[in-house]
UniProtKB/TrEMBL annotation:
This is Histone-fold containing protein. It holds the Pfam family Bromo_TP. Residues 22-98 form the Bromodomain associated domain. InterPro entries: BTP, Histone-fold, TAF8. GO terms for cellular component: transcription factor TFIID complex. The lineage of its organism: Eukaryota, Viridiplantae, Streptophyta, Embryophyta, Tracheophyta. Transmembrane segments: none annotated. Keywords: Nucleus, Transcription, Transcription regulation. It comes from the Eukaryota. PANTHER family: TRANSCRIPTION INITIATION FACTOR TFIID SUBUNIT 8 (PTHR46338). Its main location: nucleus.
Length: 180
């Protein structure tokens, strides 16, 4: 798996706890794509190929979400439900000829898409995710700026409450150039 998945993002070590929002999703997508490739028999892959497949996966999922959101709004709802997702799946896969795709007279619970997903789930063995995935957003230990009370200082003016964070030392901002 390590050969298949180069754990580097943009040339830097990919540590899930240290990635931004876009990098976090991209890294998770890349791991999932690498696992799919491995499950169908690939033993090695170029990083550029995994990046391309991860991009395609991300774009597909974004389009799926947008389409489901569209169907929710069409019916006057602000949140999607399972029927919006089924309709979005059918519309996005309609070009591949799924049975009863986007057929308005068909009950969505009996749609061809739902049947194909159920058949796939029944016929394949579940593959657990290769690496533990941190919850997003990753909450780091925050370094809080101590208040005036904690620093044992008085605020520079009476209008400033003592519970507010203390000001930075003047040397941190006095030497900075002023931009006009």
């Amino acid at each position: 798996m390590n050969e298949l998945l180069g754990m580097r993002v943009n040339g830097q070590e990919a540590l899930p706890g240290r990635l931004g929002a876009d990098d976090f999703g991209r890294a998770v997508s890349k791991v999932a794509v690498a696992q799919m490739c491995e499950s169908v028999g690939f033993q090695k892959s170029k990083e550029s190929a995994l990046d391309a497949l991860a991009d395609i996966t991300i774009r597909y999922l974004c389009d799926l979400g947008k389409m489901a959101n569209f169907y929710a709004y069409l019916t006057g709802r602000t949140e999607c439900n399972v029927f919006d997702m089924i309709r979005a799946l059918e519309v996005l896969e309609a070009s591949q000829g799924f049975p009863k795709a986007a057929n308005v007279s068909c009950c969505l619970a009996r749609s061809g898409m739902v049947k194909e997903i159920a058949d796939y789930v029944d016929s394949t063995e579940e593959i657990p995710f290769a690496q533990p995935v941190a919850q997003f957003p990753v909450i780091k230990n925050q370094i809080l700026i101590p208040s005036f009370v904690q620093m044992g200082e008085n605020p520079p003016g009476q209008h400033i409450p003592t519970w507010l964070p203390a000001f930075l030392d003047p040397h941190t901002y006095n030497s900075l150039p002023i931009v006009e």
